[in-house]
């Protein structure tokens, strides 16, 4: 009788829990080193479940996503989900401002909801330059079936990860930066973790595995392309095929055809591509370096193959030409300006994307964030934002707030660049909950940068050459600017964005160029609801790790071989009760 009662209680709890919550998708990630030769030279890369790149996370709006990460590397790890907004839960963001790292041999479970989002993103390890060795993968958030999309369902959905690549692994690249030197030219470009097709016997050695995308003639495919590289902007194109842009980082775009598109570090675009050619041969897929001396950078070109099922032969001949403007950013900037939001399309909710009238909201705070070439601070080569090179604290900012640990950071990031010497500080932007922030990124370097904000999609309202001034606001797009999480900022130019500060938490604002990020070009925006309730921020998860000033609170984890992965996350207590009930049934 007792066993029957246990059983009934178990079923009751299980059913009530699952019916009360949105569906869950679960993944187990085991991070290890493997040896691979994407450019023909054996090297150490970071694999997930033995694969490089890692698996695609496939979810639907409002799904709960559970990812258990087991760290089998020899250094700390955090996984971050670029563009996934982690609404009400910066605890799951996977950067040092919010999370203590996962030590070697430990596992930790991320548990978050992809609330009110759709679109194309990617994940990657955020610490120690690790993305330069892999550990990345695609992240898809499909719309709910009841929400219409502004295009017909494609015949297939394909993730393409492009990025510059070094034969040296991330620890060697890190040492180069620590020694005060620049990384130099990459050794190549990978497409889905593979090197170039041998389109040129001189530039491409024999024996390199290349990516092939198999398609059926006459059908239309959705191809989601992310630049997961270190610091190189890439021009993406498919020989003889138009790229119909449909979405970028969670926002449907006005649909326009491009023969090629510049994709900057950290950015993701979603194209609809119709297989409308005669398949006389295979077609080149190309990702080549932009804004460089192309004669010296020819090897920094990724080449894959688009293969029709009725193809009559292999691809041959020269690659399709890139834009002929390596010393002029005007074409690329005009192309970027042409990317606009589809204001009539529904996003994650039934209401049109254009129903949020961002252009008519009063700005409550303005930050002019200016970079400059690397500087020497206290004998170290550092990168800065508005004269401050960010120092990650031993105790994460969000954790310090939770336990009222003093002296971890300063809420004094300047609204305008410092005029004196640059300095190394843990200086954070004090955002106002439900405020409306204008951020101007001023790039005073000679290289392209892209800037990313966790926790939000911002509206890209303007960009221009030279220095931003108050008069630049007259050029802003106040109607259909694209909402996204990563924007390009051209050399000696500016980009302006608008942000509605409605997501409570501590959110990383950074350059996506890994070298500059590693050297300190980042900060955080801290947003607190003075009322402090669970409606605007979820409680700290019960599996939170402790470090820094709170390290004594951390309980040891059994890392012996064969140790089962324990339930963790916000609903760990339910799993515990279930396990206890099941144990009772077995007595």
From TrEMBL:
GO MF, one example: oxidoreductase activity
Gene Ontology terms: cellular component: plasma membrane; side of membrane
Pfam families, alphabetized: Cu-oxidase, Cu-oxidase_2, Cu-oxidase_3
Principal location class: membrane
Keywords: Cell membrane, Copper, Glycoprotein, GPI-anchor, Lipoprotein, Membrane, Metal-binding, Signal
Cell location: Cell membrane
UniProt domain Plastocyanin-like: residue ranges: 31-145, 157-311, 395-531
Entry cofactors: Cu cation
Signal peptide: 1-20
Coiled coil, from the record: none
Topology in the lipid bilayer: Lipid-anchor; GPI-anchor
Keyword Zinc in annotation: no
PANTHER family for the chain: L-ASCORBATE OXIDASE, MULTI-COPPER OXIDASE
Similarity comment: family membership: Belongs to the multicopper oxidase family.
Name used for this protein in its record: Cupredoxin
Natural source organism: Artemisia annua
């Amino acid at each position: 009788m007792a066993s029957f009662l246990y059983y009934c209680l178990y079923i009751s709890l299980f059913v009530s829990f699952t019916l009360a919550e949105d569906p869950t998708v679960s993944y187990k990630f085991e991070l290890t080193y493997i040896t691979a030769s994407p450019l023909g030279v054996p090297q150490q890369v970071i694999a997930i479940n033995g694969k490089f790149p890692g698996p695609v996370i496939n979810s639907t709006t409002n799904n709960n996503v559970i990812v258990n990460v087991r760290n089998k590397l020899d250094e700390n790890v955090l996984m971050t989900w670029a563009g996934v907004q982690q609404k009400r839960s910066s605890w799951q963001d996977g950067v040092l401002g919010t999370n203590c790292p996962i030590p070697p041999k430990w596992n930790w479970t991320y548990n978050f909801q992809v609330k009110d989002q759709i679109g194309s993103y990617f994940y990657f390890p955020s610490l120690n330059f690790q993305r330069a060795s892999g550990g990345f993968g695609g992240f898809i958030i499909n719309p709910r079936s009841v929400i219409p999309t502004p295009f017909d369902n494609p015949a297939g959905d394909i993730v393409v990860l492009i990025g510059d690549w070094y034969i040296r692994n991330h620890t060697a690249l890190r040492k180069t930066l620590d020694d005060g030197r620049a990384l130099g030219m990459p050794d190549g470009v990978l497409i889905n973790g593979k090197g170039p097709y041998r389109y040129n016997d001189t530039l491409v050695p024999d024996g390199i595995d290349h990516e092939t995308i198999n398609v059926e003639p006459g059908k239309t495919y959705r191809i989601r392309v992310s630049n997961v590289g270190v610091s190189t902007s890439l021009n993406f194109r498919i020989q003889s095929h138009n790229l119909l842009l449909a979405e970028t980082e969670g926002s449907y775009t006005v649909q326009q055809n491009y023969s090629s598109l510049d994709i900057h570090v950290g950015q993701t675009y979603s194209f609809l591509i119709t297989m409308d050619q005669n398949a006389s041969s295979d077609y080149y897929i190309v990702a080549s370096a932009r804004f460089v001396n192309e004669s010296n950078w020819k090897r920094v070109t990724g080449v894959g193959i688009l293969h029709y099922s009725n193809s009559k032969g292999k691809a041959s001949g020269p690659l399709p030409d890139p834009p002929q403007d390596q010393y002029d950013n005007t074409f690329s900037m005009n192309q970027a300006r042409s990317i606009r939001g589809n204001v009539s399309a529904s996003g994650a909710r039934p209401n049109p994307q254009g129903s949020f009238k961002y252009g008519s909201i009063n700005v409550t705070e303005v930050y002019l964030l200016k970079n400059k070439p690397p500087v020497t601070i206290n004998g170290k080569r550092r990168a800065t934002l508005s004269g401050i090179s960010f120092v990650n604290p031993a105790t994460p900012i969000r954790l310090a707030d939770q336990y009222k640990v003093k002296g971890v950071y300063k809420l004094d990031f300047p609204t305008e660049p410092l005029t004196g010497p640059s300095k190394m500080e843990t200086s954070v932007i004090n955002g106002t909950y439900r405020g409306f922030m204008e951020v101007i990124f001023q790039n005073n370097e000679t290289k392209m940068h892209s800037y990313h904000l966790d926790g939000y999609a911002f509206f890209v309202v303007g960009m221009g050459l030279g220095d931003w001034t108050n008069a630049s606001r007259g050029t802003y797009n106040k109607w259909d600017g694209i909402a996204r999480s990563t924007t390009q900022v051209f050399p000696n130019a500016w980009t302006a964005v608008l942000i509605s500060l409605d997501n409570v938490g501590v959110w990383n604002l950074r350059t996506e160029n890994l070298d500059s990020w590693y050297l300190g070009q980042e900060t955080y925006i801290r947003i607190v609801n003075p009322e402090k309730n669970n409606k605007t921020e979820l409680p700290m998860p019960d599996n939170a790790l402790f470090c820094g000033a709170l390290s004594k609170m951390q309980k040891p984890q059994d890392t012996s071989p064969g140790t089962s992965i324990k339930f963790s996350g916000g609903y760990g207590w339910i799993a515990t009760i279930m396990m206890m009930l099941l144990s009772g049934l077995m007595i």
